Amino acid sequence: MDKPKVLVIEDDLDSRELLAELLSDEFDIQTAADGEAGLSRFREGAPDVVLTDESLPGMPGTAVAREVKALSPHARVVLVSGFGEVDDSDACDAVLKKPLEPDRLSALLHALTDGA
Predict the structure, then answer these.
(1) What's the pTM value of the predicted model, to 2 decimals?
(2) Residue 64 in contact with residue 17, Cβ under 8 Å?
(3) What is the distance between the alpha carbons of residues 98 and 75, in angstroms, rounded to a whole number?
(4) I need a surface site. Which of 60, 93, 103, 109 has the fewest CB within 10 A?
(5) Among the listed residues 5, 2, 3, 1, the one whose alpha carbon sits nearest the alpha carbon of residue 68
(6) Domains of the chain listed by start with CATH number
(7) Distance of alpha carbon 28 from its chain centroid, rounded?
(8) What is the residue-wise DSSP string for the chain?
(9) Which value, to the nearest 10 degrees, does the dihedral of the CA atoms of residues 17, 38, 70, 63 take?
């Protein structure tokens, strides 16, 4: 059975690589360094879940989430933020606060991709 596809959009290289490494056993991981690159990857690969940082250069994660939902209303978006509350996060299926707990993140991604 194919692993669910997760697109990780994170501008910090170390964080992006760490997330990809932590999740790669359970998920098919794609990565992007900013919102525009992430949307291009989304259009190419149609991942099951987009995991995006809120603080991205050029385009915040909430804007990425709205674009993803416009392209594919059934796609799931998880927003990651260093702040507790994020305004305008209504297009996101979940909002997680940094630092991320790997087990909690994995469980959430599995819940969002159940049946994918």
Answers:
(1) 0.94
(2) no
(3) 22
(4) 103
(5) 5
(6) 5-113 (3.40.50.2300)
(7) 13
(8) -PPPEEEEE-S-HHHHHHHHHHHTTTSEEEEESSHHHHHHHHHHH--SEEEEESS-SSS-HHHHHHHHHHH-TT-EEEEEESSS--TT-TT-SEEEESSP-HHHHHHHHHHHHTT-
(9) 80
Task: Determine phi and psi for 74, rounding to 5 degrees.
Answer: -90, -10
32 and 59 in contact (C-beta within 8 Å)? no
pLDDT digit string (tens) for the chain, length 116 residues: 689 999 999 999 999 999 999 999 999 999 999 999 999 999 998 899 999 999 999 999 999 999 999 999 999 999 999 876 778 889 999 999 988 999 999 999 999 998 55
Is the sign of the CA dihedral 42, 45, 49, 55 positive or negative? Answer: negative
